[in-house]
Design brief:
globular; Non-ribosomal Peptide Synthetase Peptidyl Carrier Protein, Chain A
């Protein structure tokens, strides 16, 4: 599903902060398309933590099936946008 809900710059910054903190990736080293696991050696167990933090921060519900899309920052942003659109 492609969402028409836009994520603003503040929300993108918040998402990047959440991801970098949980996966222990330096935010400056992370691009929108760099892969968490392959490019940053991130632990895949952090994905559940990210999902939970996004739900709390943005007040949305995200299906665990979406974890497969959350491989980079663009994917995480798209998942949050889709979750907002579904609300």
């Amino acid at each position: 599903m492609t969402s028409s809900v836009r994520i603003d710059a503040d929300d993108k910054a918040k998402i990047k902060e959440i991801v970098s903190e949980i996966l222990e990736i330096d935010a400056e080293d992370m691009t929108d398309t760099s892969l968490f696991k392959e490019d940053h050696d991130a632990d895949s167990l952090g994905a559940i933590e990210i999902l939970s933090a996004l739900e709390r921060t943005f007040g949305v519900e995200i299906d665990q099936a979406e974890l497969t899309r959350m491989v980079n920052l663009d994917g995480v942003i798209a998942v949050v946008a889709d979750a907002r659109a579904a609300e």
